[in-house]
From TrEMBL:
<dbReference type="InterPro" id="IPR050518">
    <property type="entry name" value="Rpo3/RPB3_RNA_Pol_subunit"/>
</dbReference>
<dbReference type="InterPro" id="IPR011263">
    <property type="entry name" value="DNA-dir_RNA_pol_RpoA/D/Rpb3"/>
</dbReference>
<protein>
    <recommendedName>
        <fullName>DNA-directed RNA polymerase RpoA/D/Rpb3-type domain-containing protein</fullName>
    </recommendedName>
</protein>
<dbReference type="GO" id="GO:0046983">
    <property type="term" value="F:protein dimerization activity"/>
</dbReference>
<dbReference type="InterPro" id="IPR001514">
    <property type="entry name" value="DNA-dir_RNA_pol_30-40kDasu_CS"/>
</dbReference>
<feature type="domain" description="DNA-directed RNA polymerase RpoA/D/Rpb3-type">
    <location>
        <begin position="26"/>
        <end position="302"/>
    </location>
</feature>
<dbReference type="GO" id="GO:0003899">
    <property type="term" value="F:DNA-directed RNA polymerase activity"/>
</dbReference>
<dbReference type="GO" id="GO:0006366">
    <property type="term" value="P:transcription by RNA polymerase II"/>
</dbReference>
<keyword id="KW-0804">Transcription</keyword>
<dbReference type="Pfam" id="PF01193">
    <property type="entry name" value="RNA_pol_L"/>
</dbReference>
<comment type="similarity">
    <text>Belongs to the archaeal Rpo3/eukaryotic RPB3 RNA polymerase subunit family.</text>
</comment>
<dbReference type="InterPro" id="IPR011262">
    <property type="entry name" value="DNA-dir_RNA_pol_insert"/>
</dbReference>
<dbReference type="GO" id="GO:0005665">
    <property type="term" value="C:RNA polymerase II, core complex"/>
</dbReference>
<keyword id="KW-0240">DNA-directed RNA polymerase</keyword>
<dbReference type="Pfam" id="PF01000">
    <property type="entry name" value="RNA_pol_A_bac"/>
</dbReference>
<dbReference type="InterPro" id="IPR022842">
    <property type="entry name" value="RNAP_Rpo3/Rpb3/RPAC1"/>
</dbReference>
<dbReference type="InterPro" id="IPR036603">
    <property type="entry name" value="RBP11-like"/>
</dbReference>
Length: 308
Protein backbone atom coordinates (compact mmCIF):
# COMPACT_ATOMS: atom_id res chain seq x y z
CA UNK A 1 0.00 0.00 0.00
CA UNK A 2 1.48 3.36 -1.04
CA UNK A 3 0.87 6.52 0.96
CA UNK A 4 1.51 9.60 -1.24
CA UNK A 5 2.99 12.60 0.54
CA UNK A 6 3.68 15.50 -1.83
CA UNK A 7 5.53 16.40 -5.00
CA UNK A 8 9.01 17.89 -4.72
CA UNK A 9 10.07 19.82 -7.82
CA UNK A 10 13.75 19.38 -6.96
CA UNK A 11 13.44 15.59 -7.02
CA UNK A 12 11.06 15.31 -9.99
CA UNK A 13 9.17 12.35 -8.55
CA UNK A 14 6.17 11.74 -6.35
CA UNK A 15 7.03 11.37 -2.68
CA UNK A 16 5.49 8.28 -1.12
CA UNK A 17 5.95 5.57 1.47
CA UNK A 18 5.09 2.06 0.33
CA UNK A 19 4.89 -0.84 2.73
CA UNK A 20 6.36 -4.04 1.27
CA UNK A 21 5.93 -6.56 4.08
CA UNK A 22 5.66 -6.56 7.85
CA UNK A 23 5.17 -8.65 10.95
CA UNK A 24 5.05 -8.15 14.68
CA UNK A 25 8.78 -7.52 14.91
CA UNK A 26 9.89 -6.46 11.41
CA UNK A 27 8.87 -4.03 8.70
CA UNK A 28 10.06 -3.43 5.14
CA UNK A 29 9.00 -0.33 3.25
CA UNK A 30 10.04 1.95 0.39
CA UNK A 31 10.66 5.66 0.91
CA UNK A 32 10.67 7.63 -2.36
CA UNK A 33 10.94 11.21 -3.51
CA UNK A 34 13.55 12.35 -0.98
CA UNK A 35 17.32 12.38 -0.69
CA UNK A 36 19.99 10.47 1.21
CA UNK A 37 20.19 12.95 4.09
CA UNK A 38 16.52 12.52 5.00
CA UNK A 39 16.68 8.72 4.72
CA UNK A 40 19.75 8.55 6.93
CA UNK A 41 18.20 10.95 9.45
CA UNK A 42 15.20 8.64 9.76
CA UNK A 43 17.46 5.63 10.19
CA UNK A 44 19.48 7.30 12.94
CA UNK A 45 16.34 8.57 14.66
CA UNK A 46 14.84 5.07 14.76
CA UNK A 47 18.01 3.73 16.34
CA UNK A 48 18.81 6.36 18.95
CA UNK A 49 16.09 9.01 19.32
CA UNK A 50 12.84 7.07 19.74
CA UNK A 51 12.17 6.80 23.50
CA UNK A 52 11.43 3.47 25.19
CA UNK A 53 11.31 2.06 28.71
CA UNK A 54 14.19 0.09 30.21
CA UNK A 55 15.50 -0.90 33.63
CA UNK A 56 17.72 1.91 34.85
CA UNK A 57 18.18 1.22 38.57
CA UNK A 58 18.64 -2.12 40.33
CA UNK A 59 18.48 -2.42 44.11
CA UNK A 60 19.92 -5.79 45.20
CA UNK A 61 18.42 -6.88 48.49
CA UNK A 62 19.78 -10.43 48.64
CA UNK A 63 22.08 -12.24 46.21
CA UNK A 64 23.66 -15.55 47.11
CA UNK A 65 23.90 -16.82 43.53
CA UNK A 66 27.11 -17.50 41.62
CA UNK A 67 26.88 -14.16 39.75
CA UNK A 68 27.90 -10.88 41.33
CA UNK A 69 25.55 -7.90 41.64
CA UNK A 70 27.05 -5.90 38.76
CA UNK A 71 26.79 -8.82 36.34
CA UNK A 72 23.12 -9.38 37.17
CA UNK A 73 22.32 -5.66 36.95
CA UNK A 74 23.86 -5.50 33.47
CA UNK A 75 21.77 -8.45 32.29
CA UNK A 76 18.57 -6.92 33.70
CA UNK A 77 19.13 -3.62 31.89
CA UNK A 78 19.17 -5.33 28.51
CA UNK A 79 15.80 -7.10 28.94
CA UNK A 80 13.36 -5.36 26.53
CA UNK A 81 10.20 -4.01 28.17
CA UNK A 82 6.90 -3.31 26.42
CA UNK A 83 6.92 0.41 25.61
CA UNK A 84 3.70 0.97 23.66
CA UNK A 85 2.61 3.51 26.29
CA UNK A 86 5.96 5.24 26.60
CA UNK A 87 4.41 8.61 25.68
CA UNK A 88 2.36 8.48 28.89
CA UNK A 89 5.56 8.68 30.96
CA UNK A 90 7.87 11.60 31.55
CA UNK A 91 11.64 11.64 31.57
CA UNK A 92 12.82 11.49 35.17
CA UNK A 93 14.81 14.69 34.59
CA UNK A 94 11.60 16.52 33.68
CA UNK A 95 9.37 15.03 36.36
CA UNK A 96 8.21 17.21 39.24
CA UNK A 97 8.17 14.36 41.77
CA UNK A 98 10.11 14.93 44.98
CA UNK A 99 11.16 11.29 45.33
CA UNK A 100 14.94 11.33 45.08
CA UNK A 101 15.15 7.98 43.34
CA UNK A 102 11.85 8.38 41.44
CA UNK A 103 11.00 4.85 42.58
CA UNK A 104 7.48 5.62 43.75
CA UNK A 105 6.46 8.08 41.03
CA UNK A 106 3.84 6.76 38.64
CA UNK A 107 4.60 9.49 36.10
CA UNK A 108 8.26 8.65 35.44
CA UNK A 109 9.04 5.23 36.91
CA UNK A 110 7.84 1.64 36.96
CA UNK A 111 8.82 -0.76 39.73
CA UNK A 112 9.61 -4.39 38.89
CA UNK A 113 10.25 -6.78 41.76
CA UNK A 114 11.84 -10.22 41.70
CA UNK A 115 12.20 -12.71 44.55
CA UNK A 116 13.33 -16.28 43.83
CA UNK A 117 14.84 -19.11 45.88
CA UNK A 118 16.43 -22.31 44.62
CA UNK A 119 14.25 -25.25 45.62
CA UNK A 120 15.46 -28.22 43.53
CA UNK A 121 17.82 -30.65 45.23
CA UNK A 122 20.60 -31.77 42.89
CA UNK A 123 19.33 -29.55 40.09
CA UNK A 124 19.30 -25.84 39.27
CA UNK A 125 16.44 -23.34 39.31
CA UNK A 126 16.48 -20.92 36.38
CA UNK A 127 15.36 -17.37 37.10
CA UNK A 128 13.87 -15.78 33.98
CA UNK A 129 12.33 -12.45 32.98
CA UNK A 130 8.89 -14.03 33.52
CA UNK A 131 9.55 -14.01 37.29
CA UNK A 132 9.24 -10.21 37.44
CA UNK A 133 6.22 -8.59 39.11
CA UNK A 134 5.53 -5.16 37.64
CA UNK A 135 3.72 -2.26 39.26
CA UNK A 136 2.26 -1.46 35.84
CA UNK A 137 0.65 -4.39 33.99
CA UNK A 138 1.31 -2.66 30.67
CA UNK A 139 5.08 -2.49 31.25
CA UNK A 140 6.46 -6.01 31.46
CA UNK A 141 9.23 -7.99 29.73
CA UNK A 142 8.40 -8.60 26.07
CA UNK A 143 6.43 -11.82 25.69
CA UNK A 144 8.86 -13.41 23.25
CA UNK A 145 11.76 -12.83 25.64
CA UNK A 146 10.19 -13.83 28.95
CA UNK A 147 12.27 -17.01 28.91
CA UNK A 148 15.53 -15.04 28.96
CA UNK A 149 17.59 -16.63 31.77
CA UNK A 150 18.88 -14.17 34.34
CA UNK A 151 20.73 -16.60 36.60
CA UNK A 152 20.67 -20.27 37.64
CA UNK A 153 20.50 -21.13 41.33
CA UNK A 154 21.08 -24.24 43.38
CA UNK A 155 18.91 -25.18 46.34
CA UNK A 156 19.08 -22.62 49.12
CA UNK A 157 20.44 -19.80 46.98
CA UNK A 158 18.36 -16.63 46.87
CA UNK A 159 17.93 -13.60 44.64
CA UNK A 160 15.76 -10.67 45.74
CA UNK A 161 15.85 -7.30 44.02
CA UNK A 162 13.84 -4.26 42.99
CA UNK A 163 14.25 -2.67 39.55
CA UNK A 164 13.19 0.80 38.49
CA UNK A 165 12.39 1.21 34.79
CA UNK A 166 12.55 4.69 33.27
CA UNK A 167 11.98 6.43 29.97
CA UNK A 168 15.07 7.13 27.89
CA UNK A 169 16.72 7.06 24.48
CA UNK A 170 19.67 5.14 23.05
CA UNK A 171 21.64 8.39 22.90
CA UNK A 172 22.11 7.80 26.63
CA UNK A 173 22.47 4.00 26.59
CA UNK A 174 21.89 1.27 24.02
CA UNK A 175 19.40 -0.52 26.30
CA UNK A 176 16.81 2.11 25.30
CA UNK A 177 17.15 1.41 21.57
CA UNK A 178 13.85 0.07 20.16
CA UNK A 179 15.54 -1.56 17.15
CA UNK A 180 17.99 -4.38 16.72
CA UNK A 181 18.28 -3.57 13.00
CA UNK A 182 17.51 -0.39 11.09
CA UNK A 183 19.05 -0.22 7.63
CA UNK A 184 18.24 0.98 4.14
CA UNK A 185 19.63 0.48 0.66
CA UNK A 186 19.32 2.56 -2.48
CA UNK A 187 17.14 1.10 -5.24
CA UNK A 188 19.20 0.19 -8.32
CA UNK A 189 18.47 1.27 -11.88
CA UNK A 190 19.46 -1.76 -13.98
CA UNK A 191 19.79 -1.35 -17.74
CA UNK A 192 20.62 -4.35 -19.93
CA UNK A 193 22.69 -3.93 -23.09
CA UNK A 194 20.60 -6.16 -25.34
CA UNK A 195 22.89 -5.60 -28.35
CA UNK A 196 25.86 -6.98 -26.43
CA UNK A 197 23.82 -9.81 -24.90
CA UNK A 198 22.94 -11.04 -28.39
CA UNK A 199 26.65 -11.67 -28.95
CA UNK A 200 26.45 -14.54 -26.43
CA UNK A 201 25.12 -17.98 -27.23
CA UNK A 202 22.43 -19.64 -25.11
CA UNK A 203 24.97 -21.30 -22.80
CA UNK A 204 26.82 -18.01 -22.35
CA UNK A 205 23.59 -16.17 -21.51
CA UNK A 206 22.60 -18.80 -18.95
CA UNK A 207 26.04 -18.73 -17.34
CA UNK A 208 25.99 -14.94 -17.21
CA UNK A 209 22.55 -14.96 -15.58
CA UNK A 210 23.83 -17.48 -13.01
CA UNK A 211 26.83 -15.26 -12.22
CA UNK A 212 24.54 -13.06 -10.13
CA UNK A 213 24.54 -14.56 -6.60
CA UNK A 214 21.14 -13.08 -5.73
CA UNK A 215 19.41 -14.14 -8.99
CA UNK A 216 18.46 -10.68 -10.23
CA UNK A 217 18.25 -11.78 -13.88
CA UNK A 218 16.26 -14.41 -15.71
CA UNK A 219 16.77 -16.26 -18.99
CA UNK A 220 13.95 -17.43 -21.26
CA UNK A 221 15.10 -20.55 -23.11
CA UNK A 222 12.27 -20.24 -25.64
CA UNK A 223 12.88 -16.66 -26.80
CA UNK A 224 16.54 -16.54 -25.78
CA UNK A 225 16.02 -13.20 -24.03
CA UNK A 226 17.60 -12.05 -20.79
CA UNK A 227 15.51 -9.87 -18.49
CA UNK A 228 15.65 -8.21 -15.06
CA UNK A 229 13.31 -10.23 -12.87
CA UNK A 230 14.23 -9.29 -9.29
CA UNK A 231 15.79 -5.81 -9.16
CA UNK A 232 15.10 -5.58 -5.41
CA UNK A 233 17.66 -8.33 -4.81
CA UNK A 234 20.59 -6.39 -6.29
CA UNK A 235 23.35 -5.77 -3.73
CA UNK A 236 25.71 -3.83 -6.03
CA UNK A 237 28.26 -6.65 -5.87
CA UNK A 238 29.16 -6.09 -9.58
CA UNK A 239 29.62 -9.83 -10.19
CA UNK A 240 27.47 -9.61 -13.32
CA UNK A 241 29.58 -6.73 -14.65
CA UNK A 242 32.85 -8.57 -13.99
CA UNK A 243 31.58 -11.77 -15.58
CA UNK A 244 30.35 -9.87 -18.62
CA UNK A 245 33.71 -8.15 -19.13
CA UNK A 246 35.42 -11.54 -19.07
CA UNK A 247 33.12 -12.69 -21.86
CA UNK A 248 33.06 -9.66 -24.21
CA UNK A 249 35.83 -7.35 -22.99
CA UNK A 250 35.56 -3.72 -22.01
CA UNK A 251 34.84 -2.29 -25.44
CA UNK A 252 35.35 1.30 -26.48
CA UNK A 253 32.40 2.70 -24.62
CA UNK A 254 33.76 2.26 -21.11
CA UNK A 255 31.27 1.16 -18.47
CA UNK A 256 28.32 1.86 -20.78
CA UNK A 257 29.54 -0.86 -23.13
CA UNK A 258 29.07 -3.57 -20.47
CA UNK A 259 26.38 -6.22 -20.65
CA UNK A 260 24.58 -4.35 -17.91
CA UNK A 261 24.77 -0.90 -16.33
CA UNK A 262 23.78 -0.52 -12.68
CA UNK A 263 23.28 2.92 -11.21
CA UNK A 264 21.80 3.83 -7.81
CA UNK A 265 18.56 5.80 -7.91
CA UNK A 266 19.23 8.69 -5.58
CA UNK A 267 15.65 9.21 -4.42
CA UNK A 268 14.29 5.71 -3.66
CA UNK A 269 15.29 3.83 -0.49
CA UNK A 270 14.34 0.37 0.74
CA UNK A 271 14.17 0.23 4.54
CA UNK A 272 14.31 -2.79 6.83
CA UNK A 273 13.40 -2.21 10.48
CA UNK A 274 13.53 -4.97 13.09
CA UNK A 275 12.20 -4.26 16.55
CA UNK A 276 13.47 -5.60 19.87
CA UNK A 277 9.81 -6.16 20.75
CA UNK A 278 9.54 -3.08 22.92
CA UNK A 279 7.48 -1.36 20.21
CA UNK A 280 5.94 -2.39 16.93
CA UNK A 281 8.15 -1.44 13.97
CA UNK A 282 5.55 0.84 12.40
CA UNK A 283 5.28 2.71 15.71
CA UNK A 284 9.06 3.11 15.75
CA UNK A 285 8.99 4.61 12.25
CA UNK A 286 6.18 7.05 13.06
CA UNK A 287 7.91 8.07 16.28
CA UNK A 288 11.13 8.77 14.37
CA UNK A 289 9.22 11.13 12.07
CA UNK A 290 7.85 12.91 15.13
CA UNK A 291 11.37 13.26 16.56
CA UNK A 292 12.68 14.80 13.35
CA UNK A 293 9.68 17.13 13.05
CA UNK A 294 10.16 18.36 16.63
CA UNK A 295 13.87 19.02 16.03
CA UNK A 296 13.17 20.93 12.81
CA UNK A 297 10.43 22.94 14.53
CA UNK A 298 12.83 23.87 17.30
CA UNK A 299 15.43 24.93 14.74
CA UNK A 300 12.91 27.10 12.86
CA UNK A 301 11.84 28.74 16.12
CA UNK A 302 15.46 29.54 16.92
CA UNK A 303 16.03 31.05 13.46
CA UNK A 304 12.86 33.15 13.69
CA UNK A 305 13.70 34.47 17.15
CA UNK A 306 15.45 37.83 16.83
CA UNK A 307 18.85 38.05 18.44
CA UNK A 308 19.41 40.77 21.02
Amino acid sequence: MAVPLTRDSSVNSLQYIKSKEGSEYSLKFVLAGTDLSVANSLRRAMISEVPTLAIDQVHIIENTTCLNDEFIAHRLGLIPLTSDRVDNFQYSRDCSCIDEGHANCQKCAIKLELACTGTHMGDTTTVTAADFHSSDPDVVPVESYKNIPIVKMRKGQELTLICIAKKGTAQTHAKWSPTCCSVFRVEPDIELNQAKLQMLDSIGKQEWVNSCPTRVYGYDEVSGNVSVENPDRCTYCDECIKDGRMRIGYGEGGEYDDLVTIRPQENIFHFTVESTGAMRPEQIFLSSITCLRDKLTQMLNCLETPMH
